[in-house]
Each structure stands twice: as structure tokens, then as C-alpha cells.
Amino acid sequence: MTAAPGRGLPDRLAALSALADQVPDLTVCVFDAAHRFVLCHGPWLTRRGLTAGDVLGRTVREVVLSSFADDVDALVGAALAGRPQQAEFVVDYAEVSGAPTAVWEMAAAPLAGPDGAPAVLLTCRDVVRARASDAALSSSEQRFRTAFDAAPTPMALLVGAAARPVAVSRVNAALVRLTGRAAADLLGRDLAATAVADGLVGAELADLVERALHGQTDLVVDTWLRHADGTRVPVSAASSPPVPATAPDGTVRTELVLMLRDTTAELATHRALTEALAGERRAAEHQRRLETLRGDFVAAVSHELRTPMTGILGNIEVLLDGDAGALNPMQALMLATVEREAQRLRRLIEDLLTTAHIESGAPSAPEDAEVDLAAVAEAAAADVAGQLTRRRQRLVPALTGPAWVRGDAAGLRGVVAELLSNAATVSPAGAAVRLSCTRDGGDVVLAVADSGPGIPDAELPYVFERFFRTAHAGEQALPGTGLGLSLVAHTVTAHGGAVAAESGPGGAVFTVRLPASAAAAAVPHLLGSPA
After folding, report:
1. pTM recorded for the entire structure
2. Mean pLDDT of each 10-residue bin along the chain, 531 residues long
3. Do the beta carbons of residue 411 and residue 418 sit within 8 Å?
4. Which of 1, 251, 277, 305 is 20 to 30 A from residue 182's alpha carbon, by CA?
């Protein structure tokens, strides 16, 4: 709207008109000392079915509905007297303009007019929609709080703001039961500075929240909470992504929800399964010894039977050839029968020897092809990249290829992948796993070094046996069956190589040594370069 003709508006009144255009449901009016409209801009005019020309120069009582004209006029009068005033009016426009009912919040304040004379700035805003939105938001918040508090999963609402640490803002009944602590003892806790320092939660939980605030994914971690009785409760913790929110005081903050799951029963089950697996391993070892004894017995008996059987068949052949004298027809028939059954017994002995050889576990020959072990190691590293990423571990490669050997690329790739996976399993989160592949004289040497606790000297001789697991793996309930390293040793041996394990204060190192390919080693000589 603009002022009446001939009445110039100061820049600040023009700015008020622009402000009314930017704020929904806001109407701005200016009155002179005679309570007449000098400026009016906003949706109030539309509600009344009026225009600027209908109101400018007219008084409050001439324009405003009689039901609250006196009250508005009193607001203007008080502001002219230097007393800012506020009021709220409910107006039904159904019979006036057909517009819906409005709830006007009005405020009147003194203002200097265009010629310096006293004037009044009156603002009015329909708050029906704003209050409906607030009511809907309040209802949504109430539903969230009800669901949050009643959820069977232990949960905590964390809140952080600029220059302030992330603290616990709300906990549900399930979390109170899990910790055995009153809600008041948990609220306001800063995870990094107090909860971790006081030994109430594991540092992994604070790290999880930090990763969530930085927008990272894979927001799940295994950690622990300390119960009020002093015991540690193992939990699996998951974090929601952070979301912006507005605090009651209007400040902007960040909120996220932590969901916790008691894993005590799961770990007990895992320990029981581990113990059962150890029992199975012992039973398998006993069975293996029995099978070995049986195989040795069969081989020994077969060998013992083979020698006399050779003599028996030789003498039968001499008799049948007549070299020991002529045979009558009946004698010849009987000896032929003996020879036939002796040959049958000889074949049975050979079959038993072959079976014993197979059951002895003799390695089969792998595929024989030129293989770049450095390239194979790089491909194997890609196979376990996901496992390293989930544990925030980093691979430190030193692959000085090509490093040619003869063998089966798929089998060797499985060897490197198993060693890398084993290193990732025993190394702590965020640690480094090192992989190298180099030439060493006539051999190619591949090494995988972890950052784990190492292997006791007493256990080193057994790490490549079937079903063997270290004491550390059992105590920490690390996944595995104890077969992986035995398969590594089997494959490396089948390739004519050797695998060894060493341990130190920085972790364990597994080294695979394979003969370098003679054909590949000759290539530099053919090109006129040193090997």
C-alpha cells in the first residue's frame, strides 16, 4: 500500500510496508495524533474486504469492526501517550466478508510522524495457523516422547550445540533398567568428558557419537555400560544420523538417538558355542588319531601281506609251468584255482594300500601356471577391504611387483585373503595391517603383519594345525573355526613353499615363501637387463 496523495512517507514507513510483504499474516498500520490511518498494509484489509483507499485518512472507529473498535482505539491512544500496549482479539468475519475467524495479536508503539508529529505504529498478526502448527508440533513431540519412553529398546537422546559437548538429554525406562541407575544420574552426562572418564561407558560409544556427528556411516559398535552394582554390561550400540533441532530458547542444536542392546546372553551363547567347538575339536582330534591308527594298521598289514603274497604267486607260477615236475590234470586244476584266488587277494591288498595313501592326506598337485603374486595379493586385499573399513583399519601395502611364481592363482589369492582377514580380526579398531611382497634371491616372500596382541611362544608350533585356536581368540570370542591357517599351510606346501609365524610386541607376522618362477626370472636376461 502507499500513503494518501500528497502525504510523503519517510523511508522507515516504506520499509514497514516491505516488512509486511515478507511476513505471512502480518499487517502494519500507522496512525496520526487524530487516530487516523496514515498507512495500512497487510492481510487484515483483505479479511475486511477493504483496500488502502478505503481506510487512509479515516479514524479507527470509522473502519474497525464495532465489536473491538473501542479496544483498538484505546491501544492507539495509549501509544500516543507514550505507553506501548499489546492485546489479543478473536474476530469472526463470516457475516462481514466471508473470511474465516482470526485471532489477532496486536501491538501499538509510539512513532514520529512524517512532520515530526506524534504517531502510532500498530502491528497485528493472525496467529491461528501458527498456533495450529505449534499444536501439531507439540502433538508430534508428545507422540515421540511417549514412544521413546515406552520403547523396550534402551535409548538415550543426545543433544549438542555450538561450543558445547554432546550430552544426554533424555533416557527411557529400558535404559534405566539396563544401567540400574536413576534417570537423574544419567541426564546431562557429557559422553567424552565425564561418562568415559568416570568409567560409566566404553570409549567406543563416544567414538561412535563423534563419527555420527561427522556424517559417517556404519554407526554400530560393540561396547559396554557399567551397571550401578559395578558390573560391566556388554552392549551393541547404534546411533541415528544427527538431525538439526531448535531448543525451547530458540537456539539451534543437534540431536541424535542412541539405541543399545544387551548382548550378555549372546556372548554367553557364543562362549558356549566356542566351548562346544573346542569339544568338537578335541573329539575330531581323537577321531583323527583313530583314523591315523586305522590307516597305519591297514598300511602295515597290507605291506606285510604283499611280501608273502609275492612268494606264493611266484611258486604257483613255477608249479603251473611244470618246472617242478609234471602235474596231473586234477593237480593242475587245483593250482589254477589257487592262483586265481591269490591274484584276487593281491588286488585287494593293492586297493587297501591306495586307500591308506588317500586317507593319509597326501596333497594333490595344484594348477601349474605363471602367477604374479604381487597382483594376486592386491586382488586379495580388495576382497577384505570391506572388513578393514568396518573396523576403521588401514592397509599399508608394499607390493614391489611383478613377483612371478608357478601355481594356482585362485588358491594363492585365498591364502593372502585368509592371512589379511585373520590380521584384521586380531588387530584393534583403527590399527594398521601391513602387506608386503618382494623377491628374495630365488624366492618370492609375502608377509602379512597385524597389530594384535601377538601369539605366545607355547602356541606358535600349533597355529597351522586343524581346529587350533589361540587362547586370546577364545577369551575374546573372536570368530573362526581354527581351520583357516591349516588350509593356508596345505596350499602353500602344495605349491612347494613354506609358511611361518613369528610374534613380537607389535603383533604377529605370517610369512609365505614360494620358489620364484624360473621362466619369469629368465625374462630380464632375454631383454639384456639384470635379474
Report:
1. 0.36
2. 42 67 81 91 86 90 88 93 90 72 89 77 85 66 78 87 76 90 85 76 86 85 90 90 75 85 89 88 85 71 76 85 84 83 69 54 69 92 86 89 88 89 89 92 92 87 76 66 73 89 89 84 43 37
3. no
4. 251
